[in-house]
What we know:
alpha+beta
Amino acid sequence: MRHGKKINHLSRKSGHRKLMLANLACSLIEHKRINTTVAKAKALRQYVEPLVTKSKEDSTHNRRIVFSYLRNKYAVTELFREVASKVGDRPGGYTRIIKLGNRLGDNADMAMIELVDFNELYNGGKKEEKKGRSRRGKSKKAETAPVAEAPVVEETPVAEAPAVEESNEDKAEA
């Protein structure tokens, strides 16, 4: 029975497991999506989501905590700059796991794990734009100002000259 055993050991010793998850997390942050097995993807999700949450608040303390997990200063910089700016308003759920089927060699279940905000397919193919929010109410002047209507001007359509088509006989004679 596995009562109270929340972590998947992935058939590895603790040092190997920690370094493997750190390398997977660095690759995920750098490339925004990686292919791996389903078990590793689920373990990686538990490993990387608290780090993304820490990156929302950029402080020296949080950077040192994240660096102790990732052990890669380039990944930490990328996480605190690009990733944190995209996920700033998201309350959680920063990663998505999509199952891909089985691997040819050993029939292992494969999955793609990706950062949610960096997928243009699910965002409707458009880049996310920042929306400025204001707590102030709208100005009363803007509500009471009359809207001037523009005069409607009708344009006369311009007649086009009919296109002259050459018949097949004319082409044959030429």
